[in-house]
Amino acid sequence: MRSYQGKGIGKGIAEGVVWVYTSKAAQVTRLSIGDAEAEVQRFQGAMELAGKQLQALYEQAREKVGEEEALIFEVHQMMLEDAKFIDSIECMIREEQVNAEYAVETTGVYFSNVFASMEDAYIRERAADMRDVTNRVIGILHGEEHSLGEDVWRREKGVIVVAEDLLPSQTIQLDRSKICGFVIQKGTETCHTAILAKTMGIPAVVGADFTIEEMADMNGKAGAVDGESGKFYVEPEREVLNKLQNRMEVVRREADFYEQFRGKETVTFDGRRIELCANVGSLADLEHALEQTAEGIGLFRSEFLYLEGDDFPTEEEQFAIYSQAVERMGDKPVIIRTLDIGADKQSPYMELAEEKNPTMGCRGIRVCLKRPEIFKTQLRALFRAAVTGNLRVMYPMITSMDELGQIKAIVREVKAELAAEGVMFREPSQGVMIETPAAALISDELAKEVDFFSIGTNDLTQYTLACDRENSALDGFYDAHHPAVLKLIAMTVENAHKAGIPVGICGELAGDESLLQEWIQLGVDELSVAPGSILRLRGLIRKS
Ligand code: PEP
Ligand code: MG
């Protein structure tokens, strides 16, 4: 048995099979090799195996989701068999005496750029497939045990994803229905993978004390994740498993106790009502929120829709999701946050400029104001979906009145365009996130111009304390309870109420039980938390 320690996320415990995630593309380095022919043979072997894997994936997909969806794997196979692609790689290995990984990566990037520059939209879209195919071959060359990996994913459930670091775009592309635990070497409690794990109700350990190299041998072994103590075990001994199972029983019993609050009103002991909502990132999360009797969606992180695919979601795709979300929630409010990309949340297709300091860079509303075509598509979808129910729109990362002015000008354009086209829409109520110290400090002015506030304590803490929320080395400095953060929250609540608008909290601090009394005393109107925390928090509020 091996055991590792990190920070625990979520109260649960999970047992499953370890699957080690490695980002293949990031690891390619140029090496000089002595025997080019042997390297070409190694490349050919990898291509053969990649072909077999794709055939198996094609057959699996055809069985599970149908011929049309399976075709993509046939396209990948055709790419692998392309003579020009193979020749370029073999030539490069022979002429430049370089390793196969480097030749595959370089050729893949070249082909993918050629595809991306084509006029034909279908061919352009193949650029991402080219990257996928080359990543597969590089992974095999790296000696990743793909067959083992795929066996793990064929299980009904019970995969423990172990990674050095996991970007939201990578997490979102995993089959979430099979994941029972996350163990991340670099993450922090407020990194987006931790938030995603919480939203999914899955235990996680972040900032774990291993190196990803030593994890390579753990692939496919039995593992256990303890979200409470922050322990991760590989091949846990019987005694440890017994203890974990006993604790699991306690967690189950506690959950049973809080079942009595299902569907109840969230009122304090002395009768003050608090709206208890859920944070979600997808329609699947929203179902979980409904099942937990959330009183609304306090934060729909719409950027996850953008991270799932290889291109921006179209207006129609977004409209379908937003209208389904509001319809499912009935008359309960659904606050959809406009695209909050940048920093850790980005995908290659977005082509965001590389930044030295992305957390302080072009993210959230700044991206939308710089690229209004992306913003307008989303606003059109949102305003159209607002006809179907209680949809509200929220803008992230606000720092100035000027930004609000620019948003309003774009909103006016969108409304005029929709009206001119005769498209049905409704202007929903619109609010801003208070997640920068600047926004909190001008919250008196902002409050006069918007319909509601929601306080994003994850970023508010990060920017107030100048402390990167993704950096596990800053553990201990990132203190969401810091008086400066609490002062800014209190100031925001007071300014909202002076202007007569409601204010909620949707950052992780909303579910921090040690601050519940503080929120009640301040008069916070709404708390939005991970779906799995709803019943427990409701029980605690009713006792307060
Ligand atoms: C926050 O910053 O507190 C927030 C809720 O937004 P996100 O965690 O998605 O940045
Ligand atoms: Mg934020």
What does this molecule look like?
By secondary structure, the protein is of the alpha/beta class. Helices cover 49% and strands 14% of the residues. The protein contains 22 helices and 16 strands. An 8-stranded mixed beta sheet has the order 1-8-7-3-4-5-6-2. An 8-stranded parallel beta barrel has the order 9-10-11-12-13-14-15-16, surrounded by 4 helices. Helix 21 links the parallel strand 15 and strand 16. Helix 2 packs across helix 5 and helix 11 packs parallel to helix 13. It is globular and about 80 Å long. The two termini are 44 Å apart. The chain binds phosphoenolpyruvate (PEP) and magnesium ion. The site of magnesium ion (MG) has 5 residues, from helix 19.
Q: Give the averaged pLDDT, no decimals.
A: 91
Number of helices: 22
Which structural class is indicated by helix and strand composition?
A: alpha/beta
Low-confidence runs (pLDDT<50, min 5 residues)? Answer: none
Shape: globular
Q: What oligomeric state best describes the polypeptide chains here?
A: single chain
Q: Rg from C-alpha positions? A: 25 Å
Distance between the termini: 44 Å
The number of E-state strands comes to 16
Short summary of the structure?
By secondary structure, the chain is an alpha/beta fold. Helices cover 49% and strands 14% of the residues. The model has no long low-confidence stretch (mean pLDDT 91).
